[in-house]
Amino acid sequence: MSVLVNKDSKIIVQGFTGSEGTFHASQMIEYGTNVVGGVTPGKGGTSHLDRPVFNTVKDAVERAGADTTIIFVPPAFAADAIMEAADAGIKVIIAITEGIPVADMIKANAYVKERNARLIGPNCPGVITPGEAKVGIMPGFVFKKGTVGIVSKSGTLTYEAADQVVKQGLGITTAIGIGGDPIIGTTTKEAVELLMNDPETECIVMIGEIGGQLEADAAHWIKADGNRKPVVGFIAGVTAPAGRTMGHAGAIVGGSDDTAEAKKQIMRECGIHVVDSPAEIGKKVKEVIG
Q1: What are the residue ranges of helices labelled H in the chain?
Q2: Domains of the chain and any CATH numbers
Q3: In the beta sheet, which residues pair with residue 233?
Q4: Ligand-binding site membership of 261 (annotated)
Q5: N or C, fewer C-beta in 10 Å, the chain?
Q6: Is residue 220 annotated as a catalytic residue, yes or no?
Q7: Is 19 annotated as a binding residue?
Q8: In what order do the strands lie in the sheet with 145-152?
Q9: pTM over 0.85
Q10: Sites in the chain below the pLDDT cut of 70
């Protein structure tokens, strides 16, 4: 099995004919992802990358049966694109766009939840189920199919963790890049829960960073859930100074509980196998799987 996306997902690209949408859609298609078309207002009825272009998401749902979307729309319009997808009945919405205004995201996030859709991101690398569907900007060749799930705020650390897991002779069920903005659609805990309930996932890699409570919330849930599967954790930002945004807009130490060391302590107390360097992720996964 897998979570969120698989070979049967019918995927559209919002911002299909723009430079980013074109580049990444072509990579997704080359990977074998079932891209059924794209959306660019005003270009409906044309063709792009040998796929139909629609004026609206609703058209794409009605005519191509789309159920999943990936969004490459500029920040000023991205929240509207998210809400349009939810309104059209899309159930998995993956927003790659970085820098969407927080006020816009508060509105869009609530809108998505009201319609029982799942938003991944924004400011994320996307989701990949190796060998089935790459709905994002990650390098597909790094990922091989297996039994390890990945949840990460960081795009590059998602790829790093996957590469290490594969080099240990293991592989990935689904990797979820949840995004590094202050307001995101799916939390660390929610993504971990999806993988915890996936029968094919035997171990989960949880990669977080300074700022916020997402990792602590996930750790407490994992413990309360009975530590059903081993979880390997890493927190980026050990040397980050307090009060300064580091890379991601959500990565800012606001208090003592936001630091990397504080998060790692909570995770260890909750039974998570915490590593102090990303270079140790693969070996630790191999160790805990046995």
Answers
A1: 19-31, 57-64, 75-87, 102-114, 155-167, 188-196, 214-224, 260-269, 281-289
A2: 11-120 (3.40.50.720), 138-289 (3.40.50.261)
A3: 206, 274
A4: no
A5: C
A6: no
A7: yes
A8: 133-136, 126-129, 172-177, 145-152, 203-209, 231-236, 273-274
A9: yes
A10: 1, 239-247, 249-258
